[in-house]
Amino acid sequence: MAKKAGTSAGVDDAHGWDARLGWAFDLIADDPAERGAALGRLADARGNVGDALRRWNELWHLTLPLGGQEQYRDPTFLQAYERYREAGKYVLPDALWNRPPGDMRTWPGLPYALLFLEWEARYPQEWTRHAKKWGTKQGLIRDVAVADHSETVRTKLTDLVEVVVQRRYRCKDREYLRVARAVDSDDLRARLETAARSHNPWARRHVGYVLWLLDRPEVPNTIHVWQTWNAAEATG
After folding, report:
1. What contacts 144, CB < 8 A, 6 or more positions away?
2. Residue 102: which of 208, 13, 212 has the closest Cα?
3. How many whole angstroms separate alpha carbon 132 and alpha carbon 225?
4. How far is 22 from 24, CA to CA, in rounded Å?
5. DSSP letters along the chain, please?
6. Which of 19-23, 72-76, 84-88 has the lowest mean pLDDT?
7. Mean pLDDT over residues 191-213, rounded?
8. 8 Å CB contact between 130 and 39
9. Can you say whether residue 98 is alpha, beta or left, with left for phi > 0 and alpha for psi between -120 and 50 degrees?
10. How remote is the C-alpha of 7 from its chain's centroid?
């Protein structure tokens, strides 16, 4: 089988993203019926990607005898790959892969990167069933953890940190420390202090660690540091 390549978002504007994926914001709707309809549309789009990938793989086998670079110059093979790549632009998370070089803060796909992270934060079970990609989650968190976002994006990132620190740990959640440091503010700290006073034991422990690191920007967020801090808290 041909190796599955990441589809490319390519150079595109906000209108193009909205035309293809505007429906995806219903994945985080409060109404279960709206989320259900969006999940159905996601499944259809995912089916199109799967069909295109199978056709590309079939042609990979058929053109294999050409050998070397000739196989990758075959117009039928290239057309099948392009169809696969294009199908990926209509589905999450594929549309977010292979972001073109440039400033993340001005990337037209940024609202959909935030959507993907918010979906995982608010509806983790649905996200896991329908779009689980831990590497994509990790990469996006690292990409958005930069300073000088617009106020709207900073608020969204602050919301995400607030949600994540109050739940049981999920894969790659530790990366949100990068975001907390990037959007550190009085508002974020006030929310964290409120969470620290909750009856949720995980929130109290996790928030304490986040606040401790925010006061120590020189300290790396490693498993060793987390374990050492936990041990100190347990004996303190």
Report:
1. 104, 110, 113, 114, 117, 153, 157, 179, 182
2. 13
3. 28
4. 5
5. ----PPP---S--HHHHHHHHGGGGGGG-SSHHHHHHHHHHHHHHHHHHHHHHHHHHHHHHHHGGG-HHHHHH-HHHHHHHHHHHHHHTTSTTGGGSSPPSS-GGG-TTHHHHHHHHHHHHH-HHHHHHHH--HHHHHHHHHHH--S---HHHHHHHHHHHHHHTTS---TTGGGHHHHHHHT--HHHHHHHHHHHTSS-HHHHHHHHHHHHHHT-TTS---HHHHHHHHHHHHH-
6. 72-76
7. 92
8. yes
9. left
10. 15
Q: What is the pLDDT of residue 236?
A: 66
Structure tokens at 147: 């300073």
Check pLDDT > 90 for residue 23: yes
The predicted pLDDT at position 9 comes to 41
Tokens of 14: 């906000």
Residues 6+ apart with CB under 8 A from 171: 134, 137
* pLDDT for position 229: 92
Rounded Cα distance, 119 and 28, in Å:
6
Round to whole Å and give the CA distance between 75 and 77: 5
Rounded (5°) CA angle 114-120-123 = 120
| Mean pLDDT, the chain, integer | 92
What does the DSSP assignment read for 218-233? TS---HHHHHHHHHHH
Between 31-35, 70-74, 168-172, 205-209, the lowest mean confidence (pLDDT) is in 70-74
Checking if the pLDDT of 4 tops 60, the result is no
Nearest by Cα to 121 from 76, 74, 170, 52: 170
